[in-house]
Write a structure and sequence with these properties.
Helices cover 25% and strands 32% of the residues. By secondary structure, it is α+β, with helices and mostly antiparallel strands. It has one domain: Aminopeptidase (3-Layer(aba) Sandwich). Strands 1, 2, 3, 4, 5, 6, 7 and 8 form an 8-stranded mixed β-sheet that branches. A hairpin with a 2-residue loop joins strand 2 and strand 3. The two termini are 21 Å apart. Its EC number is 2.3.1.-. InterPro entries: Acyl_CoA_acyltransferase, GNAT_dom. It is an enzyme of class 2 (transferase). This is GNAT family N-acetyltransferase. Keywords: Acyltransferase, Transferase.
């Protein structure tokens, strides 16, 4: 598994295609949720992803403070179906949190979690900060990680 993190400008056309392809496969097709996947935030983001056999297998979009929220944020977190349950999601989140902690140590990290994944994110010190709400007809909660660099994860 090869891990990469790049700004939008650093992505090749093929890398961007692979990222958008898996995001649409999971968030639009698999979850049967037609919504505007390309939302204008990608250009401001760092794109963290793992590739195996020339396919993106894990991905997260990392946004600096003041982009989507006042806090830094993690979004579009995914693991390919054939890699779920292997620990790849945990590795992805560890890398995402570490990157944001190193680059934006003075700000919390925020994310929108699908409600079923709340316990997964709680293992990385994220705490619920909202009631459950529907986003594209899927129950979500907002979560924030207030601790800064050096914090131990619970998993």
């Amino acid at each position: 598994m090869k891990w990469t993190i790049k700004s939008f400008e650093e992505l090749t056309a093929d890398e961007l295609y692979q990222i958008l392809k898996i995001r649409v496969e999971i968030f639009v097709v698999e979850q049967e949720c037609p919504y505007p996947e390309i939302d204008g935030m990608d250009k401001a983001a760092e794109h963290l992803y793992a590739v195996e056999d020339n396919e993106v297998k894990a991905y997260a979009r990392l946004l600096p403070p003041g982009t989507m929220y006042q806090e830094a944020s993690i979004g579009r977190v995914l693991v390919a179906g054939d890699k779920r349950g292997t620990g790849l999601g945990k590795e992805l989140m560890k890398r995402a949190v570490k990157n944001l902690d190193e680059n934006y140590s003075q700000t919390p990290i925020r994310l929108q979690a699908q409600e079923y994944a709340e316990a997964f994110y709680a293992a990385f010190s994220f705490q619920r900060i909202s009631d459950t709400y529907l986003e594209d007809n899927i129950p979500h909660v907002d979560m924030r990680r207030n601790s800064i660099f050096g914090d131990e994860f619970k998993n």
